[in-house]
Amino acid sequence: MNYRKTAIYAQTDASTAKTEPIDLDLSEVISRLQVKFNATNSTHDATDHPAKQVSKVEIVDGSDVLYSLSGQQIEALMFYNTKRGRNYEMEYRNGLENRMVLDLLFGRKLWDPLLAFDPRKFKNPQLKITHNKALGGSLPTTATLEVFADVFDEKVVEPIGYIMPKEFKAYTSPSSADNEYTELPNDYPIKRIGVMGYKADLWWDNIFTEIELDEENKKRLPWSIDAYDLMQLAMTEYGQYVETLVGTAPTIATHTWFVTPVEVPAPMISPIGGSWYGGIGSETSGGYISQVFTVQCAFRALISGIIPHGLVPLDCGDQMDPDDWYDVTKKGKIKLRVKAGGSADIKIVLEQLRKY
Questions:
Q1: Is residue 282 within 8 Å of residue 272, measured between CB atoms?
Q2: Intra-chain end-to-end CA distance of the chain, in Å
Q3: Sign of dihedral through CA atoms 5, 11, 14, 20?
Q4: pTM (global) more than 0.90
Q5: How many other CB atoms sit within 10 Å of the CB of residue 27?
Q6: How far apart are CA 150 and CA 89, in angstroms?
Q7: pLDDT in tens, the chain (356 residues)
Q8: Backbone phi and psi for residue 50, each to the nearest 5 degrees, phi listed first
């Protein structure tokens, strides 16, 4: 058997918020880690998006940070790396369990022999998962955590390195049209830069207006683009994000549920075991849908939209060809300029090629 899935952290109660350290003491090369976080809801009213229940996933080797993203950032990169939305439902109903799987992919695809995580290349690699069930779902009362690894078994591989994603910078943009400058690191080639931000009732291109990447004080501009154009071009490449959610309208009123696409989320709703809800939805932006229900009912909704968790990619070359990625190790100063259009929490995410 060339490949094998192994449980490296058995299902454990995660009802108490904490950071869980897990030793990565495997002798096999890892193509992917899967973090499984399940939480049981105690109400029909949605608290927030379930991905917020995992605020940080890190891999560290002493003080060396080898991987560091939030659950939302992982979900966004899952889409950009596979062009697929989540394959499981978001569950917001009272008494039922929402199940979430976060994929930490270390190569260009699953079972990439060239790029994978080799724990033997480090002294004491450790996976650290920070979770708090209360931050998402529908006011969950209990939760569990489980971790799996997809490893090369009988197939012998010698990867040259792995893809290292990190949240590089976080800041709050001003409401005025000010520029935020970020000097990017030039220690490892960059596969992708992610500009991430969203806020309820703001369109993505109301938060950002211009994005520019310059080398050595504008000697060269690899990227210089209007934010709306960047969004449109990225979504032309990656298409619609599609997912399913299940909920209940407990009263005849307007209710809100949180979704992954932050721009133009369009729900197709069907009732579960009851009459049609008879409601209308208002146009929304910023990671939620709002529906007016005229009857109490459970329903299933197919959601399609764009920009998962507000992250838009600046792809640096052919994403399947490491030799074509942005080799900043041969450059001088590199600055990312992001011009604000509205106030929101902004994150800059990098995917870098870290060689052994």
A1: no
A2: 26
A3: negative
A4: yes
A5: 8
A6: 23
A7: 899 999 999 999 999 999 999 999 999 999 999 999 999 999 999 999 999 999 999 999 999 999 999 999 999 999 999 998 887 899 999 999 999 999 999 999 999 999 999 999 999 999 999 999 999 999 999 999 999 999 999 999 999 999 999 999 999 988 778 999 999 999 999 999 999 999 999 999 999 999 999 999 888 899 899 999 999 999 899 999 999 999 998 888 888 999 999 998 999 888 887 666 666 677 899 999 998 888 788 999 999 999 999 999 999 999 999 999 999 999 999 999 999 888 899 999 999 999 99
A8: -60, -30
| Residue among 241, 222, 221, 216 at smallest CA distance from 231 | 241
Taken in order of first residue, the domains within the chain and their CATH numbers are 3-163 (2.70.9.10)
Q: What's the burial of 310, exposed, middle or buried (CB within 10 Å: 0-12/13-18/19+)? A: buried
In order of 175, 268, 309, 310, the CA distances from 345 in angstroms are 11, 30, 12, 10
Strand-pairing partners, residue 198, are none
Contacts of 169 by beta carbon, 8 Å cutoff, 6+ apart:
182, 347, 348
